[in-house]
Amino acid sequence: MVGDMAAQFGKETSTGGAFVRQPNAFTDRVTADGSSGRRPEAGRYRLIACLACPWAHRAIIVRGLLGLDGVISLGLVDPIRDDRGWRFTLAEDGRDPVLGIEYLAQAYRATDPDFGGRVTVPAIVDVETGKVVTNDYPQITLDFSTEWAEFHKPDAPDLYPADRRAEIDALIEPIFHNVNNGVYKAGFATSQEAYEAAFTALFAELDTLSTRLETSRYLLGDRITEVDIRLFTTLVRFDAVYHGHFKCNRQKLAEMPTLWAYARDLFQTPGFGETVNFDHIKRHYYATHDQINPTRIVPLGPDESVWQEPHGRG
């Protein structure tokens, strides 16, 4: 049965107390052949992201690794939302300097005046029209790798190699359901049953991944691919927020030796660690999920310096 606690996102909570993430509202694409009606174009599109958000974080990492920094501009929102959603209060005058808006919700409603869902990041916005092209976070990074190839830097890694896509996709699915989204299903559950189911699936998947990584530096051997990035953005937040705030407390990441070493290996790889902002991460989770943390007290720990300790892999 659903407990007495109100849901953090009521529209996304089932009658059984389980968190059910809303579908992505905008799913247009920018495609290399123009079949979508949009082609890659330097300066035309802007990635709106939050450094606290794991879904947006993966887009920031992929954009940087591929060398798309100078092609797709980046706008950052404040990690603290208010009742109107994601705010551009990090900018000097409280407006995104390219789009000229104060809230990402303004771009959403410019695209669909009847939009009534939760405004999410990442989002790709057309600079010329001010409208959202897509907030389809699973597809955004895949398109960066495939549809934007003409703009990749010369030494860009192939994060979604054609000959390994079936393997990557097969790993992505359980990692999404049980880990990436699994921590949210545990944290936002409003029934004991829903929480325990999410908790059990989460740690079962982490155990499976740990076993796999005992004999492989990355999830697909000796090269970083899309699926490593997707797992990393959850792991890097694990001890700081998911372990305590979301009650994912069977173990800390730092108490799972293989996964902890793997995560540090990625953190210390150029393009990863420098994109992590623990201050934004902690302030977002602890200060915006008021149904879970009504005092909004943000913890001081854990010690960030441990991420630089030798990982012993590779």
Automatic annotation (TrEMBL):
Question: Source organism's superkingdom?
Answer: Bacteria
Can you tell me which residues bind glutathione? Answer: 86, 118-121
SUPFAM superfamilies linked to this entry: GST C-terminal domain-like (SSF47616), Thioredoxin-like (SSF52833)
Per UniProt, what is one GO molecular function of this protein?
A: glutathione transferase activity
Pfam families attached to this UniProt entry: GST_C_2, GST_N_2
Q: Which UniProt keywords apply?
A: Transferase
Query: Which residues does the entry assign to the active site, renumbered to this chain?
Result: 53 (nucleophile), 184 (proton donor/acceptor)
One cellular-component annotation, GO: cytoplasm
Please state every residue range assigned to the domain named GST C-terminal.
161-288
Where does the entry annotate site (Lowers pKa of active site Cys)?
242, 285
PANTHER family xref list: GLUTATHIONE S-TRANSFERASE OMEGA-LIKE 1-RELATED, GLUTATHIONYL-HYDROQUINONE REDUCTASE
Can you say what this protein is called? Putative glutathione S-transferase
Q: Which organism is the protein's source?
A: Actinokineospora auranticolor
